[in-house]
Amino acid sequence: MSSSFSGQVAVITGGASGIGLAIAKKLHSEGATVALLDLSAETAEAATKEVGANAVAYAVNVTDEAQVKTVIDEIGNRFGRVDILVNSAGVTGKTSIKTHEVDLADFRFVFEVNVVGSFLTSRAVLPWMLKNNYGRILHIASVSGKEGNAGMLAYSSSKAAVIGMAKVQGKEYAETGITVNALAPAVIRTPMVAALPAQQVQYMTDKIPMKRCGELEEIAHLATFIVSPGTSFTTGFTFDMTGGRATY
Questions:
Q1: Which tens digit of pLDDT belongs to each residue from 150-183?
Q2: Model pTM greater than 0.85?
Q3: Which residues contact 226 (CB under 8 A, 6 or more apart)?
Q4: Is 155 a catalytic residue?
Q5: Fewer CB atoms inside 10 A, N or C side of the chain?
Q6: Which CATH code, of 3.40.50.720, 1.50.40.10, 3.90.1150.10, 3.40.50.10420, is assigned to 9-239?
């Protein structure tokens, strides 16, 4: 087993499935202790068995300020540190609809999970990282946050906000040994994507020059590079993972 993350503690929201679980497995394989945060305690607990011996599960609603602080502090106190945060919890909301058809409640729900959740978790881990003058925060965004996907107003807008958050936080903590970056994938083969209407997935895939979805192993590889100790002079940046779609 590689030990590039030996002794480090990684917190991964949405860690029980999809992108979050793939990243958790990769970090664990390279020596990190990983805390999987998910809305369902049962799902998170089951996921730890997939990840390995140094994985722990916590049930948390990332939109609940008190819950988030309690869980992050519990992790910090349990292990004495928090080195990495990967914000992978996310929802698409209703898709394949135009702006005049968007329901306000759904729009707010998407922003609560994708934006407020990323804010609350990053705010909670930063004091722990500042104690050691070291940390890596990665917000999982989306190419739709850069370019906008028609039919996905709430999701695209929320991911644009997440990209903006990474830019601000990267600058705020640039002198502390803490980096904050975003990762903007195109469509990745996940359970969340599988639940989307086929025409929405086709619309997104058709824009990718490689003409395929990204794979979970690919995004885990890049995410692990971003949060590695050696990636120390890049912050406030949005990494591309789009099969050639993004050109800037």
A1: 999 999 999 999 999 999 999 999 999 999 999 9
A2: yes
A3: 136, 138, 181, 183, 234, 239
A4: yes
A5: C
A6: 3.40.50.720
